[in-house]
C-alpha cells in the first residue's frame, strides 16, 4: 500500500503486512478492497481465503482458497481504488481523471484546491501527482461525507498529502489564507459560477481552473463567468470505449487428399462423395467492444488566469 516515510516520500511496500489494504481481484469487473487482519478470512464463490496466508507475500501474488480457487492481491493504486471505493456521490473515472491531471499541469510540489470532495476519487490521484512535497486542500459542505473521505485517505496512506475541510465553497468561497497560493483549482459543484470569483483570487499568476459539470447549461454559464478574469477557455468531453480481449477457439476444415497441411487433425467427417474432411483446431485473439462501455460522464472546462 502507499506508505510515507520520514522524508515524506511516497512508495509501495512490496510485501503485504498485517493491517495493509489490498485489492482482491477476481476479474476486471469484480474487485474489492480488504484490510488484512491475521485470523480473518475472506469468503467468495472460489472458497475460503485465510488472511494469514497473505502476510509476507508480494503485491500481485496469486493466492488459493481451501477449494483450489484463486484471486490476485493487488496494491491499492489510485486507478484501482477508483473502481472499488464507496460511492457517496457520482465519481470521476480514469479517463476524466487522467485528462484533469494533465491539463491542470499538476506535478510534484503543486498546491491544489478542490471542491467538492465527494467520494475522493479524483483527490486520490491528485495526491499521488503532487507528492511528496505538494498538498491537496479539498472541501465539501457535507460534514459526514468529508469525514468518510478523510477516513479513506487514512486507509490509502495519503493523509499526509490531503487536508479535508467542511465548507460551502459556493456560498463562502475558499478560505482567504490560500489567496495567491494555488497552482490549480478544481470545482465539481452544481453551481460552479458562484465559486469562480473566489477561485480566481486563490490562483497564482498563470494558474489554471477546471470545472466539471454534467450539463451543458452549467458549462455555458460558467464560461460566461470566467471570461472576465481568465483566458484560454476550453471545454472537453472525454469519451472512453473499452475493448475486451480474449482468445477464442476456431475450426478450419480441409478435404483430405494427397496433400497435408502438417498439422494433426482433430476430427474426421465423411462427405457424401466418400472423401474425408479433416477439421483442424485453431485459435485466434479477438478484441470486441465491451457491452457496458461508459458514455457521457460530464464536461471539463479549463481556463487560465490572466
UniProtKB/TrEMBL annotation:
Listed EC numbers: 2.1.1.220
All residue ranges annotated as the tRNA (adenine(58)-N(1))-methyltransferase catalytic subunit TRM61 C-terminal domain in the record: 69-304
One Pfam family cited in the UniProt record for this chain: GCD14
Keywords per UniProt: Methyltransferase, Nucleus, S-adenosyl-L-methionine, Transferase, tRNA processing
A GO biological process held by the record: tRNA methylation
List of residues binding S-adenosyl-L-methionine: 119-122, 140, 168, 188
Subcellular location: Nucleus
Keyword S-adenosyl-L-methionine attached: yes
Keyword Endoplasmic reticulum: no
Catalytic activity: adenosine(58) in tRNA + S-adenosyl-L-methionine = N(1)-methyladenosine(58) in tRNA + S-adenosyl-L-homocysteine + H(+)
A single GO molecular function term of this UniProt record: tRNA (adenine(58)-N1)-methyltransferase activity
Annotated signal sequence range: none
Enzyme class label: transferase
GO cellular component, one term: nucleus
Chief site of localization: nucleus
PANTHER family assigned: TRNA (ADENINE(58)-N(1))-METHYLTRANSFERASE, TRNA (ADENINE(58)-N(1))-METHYLTRANSFERASE CATALYTIC SUBUNIT TRMT61A
Family: Belongs to the class I-like SAM-binding methyltransferase superfamily. TRM61 family.
Record's protein name: tRNA (adenine(58)-N(1))-methyltransferase
Organism: Cicer arietinum
Amino acid at each position: 500500500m502507499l506508505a510515507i516515510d520520514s522524508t515524506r516520500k511516497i512508495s509501495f511496500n512490496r510485501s503485504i503486512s498485517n493491517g495493509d489494504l489490498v485489492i482482491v481481484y477476481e476479474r476486471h469487473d469484480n474487485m474489492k478492497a480488504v484490510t488484512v487482519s491475521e485470523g480473518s478470512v475472506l469468503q467468495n464463490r472460489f472458497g475460503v481465503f485465510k488472511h494469514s496466508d497473505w502476510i509476507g507475500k508480494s503485491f500481485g501474488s496469486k493466492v488459493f482458497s481451501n477449494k483450489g480457487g484463486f484471486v490476485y492481491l493487488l496494491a491499492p493504486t489510485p486507478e484501482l481504488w477508483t473502481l472499488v471505493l464507496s460511492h457517496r456521490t457520482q465519481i470521476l473515472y480514469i479517463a476524466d481523471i487522467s485528462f484533469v491531471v494533465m491539463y491542470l499541469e499538476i506535478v510534484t510540489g503543486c498546491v491544489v484546491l478542490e471542491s467538492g470532495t465527494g467520494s475522493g476519487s479524483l483527490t486520490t490521484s491528485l495526491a499521488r501527482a503532487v507528492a511528496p512535497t505538494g498538498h491537496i486542500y479539498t472541501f465539501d459542505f457535507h460534514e459526514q461525507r468529508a469525514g468518510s473521505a478523510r477516513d479513506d485517505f487514512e486507509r490509502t496512506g495519503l493523509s499526509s498529502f490531503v487536508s479535508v475541510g467542511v465548507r460551502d465553497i459556493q456560498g463562502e468561497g475558499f478560505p482567504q489564507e490560500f489567496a495567491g497560493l494555488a497552482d490549480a483549482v478544481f470545482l465539481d459543484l452544481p453551481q460552479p459560477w458562484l465559486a469562480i470569483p473566489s477561485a480566481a483570487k486563490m490562483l497564482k499568476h498563470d494558474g489554471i481552473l477546471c470545472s466539471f459539470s454534467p450539463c451543458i447549461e452549467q458549462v455555458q454559464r460558467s464560461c460566461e463567468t470566467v471570461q472576465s478574469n481568465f483566458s484560454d477557455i476550453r471545454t472537453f468531453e472525454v469519451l472512453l470505449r473499452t475493448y475486451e480481449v480474449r482468445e477464442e477457439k476456431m475450426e478450419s476444415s480441409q478435404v483430405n487428399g494427397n496433400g497435408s497441411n502438417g498439422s494433426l487433425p482433430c476430427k474426421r467427417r465423411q462427405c457424401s462423395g466418400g472423401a474425408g474432411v479433416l477439421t483442424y483446431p485453431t485459435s485466434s485473439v479477438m478484441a470486441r467492444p465491451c457491452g457496458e462501455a461508459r458514455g457521457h460522464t460530464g464536461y471539463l472546462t479549463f481556463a487560465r488566469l490572466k
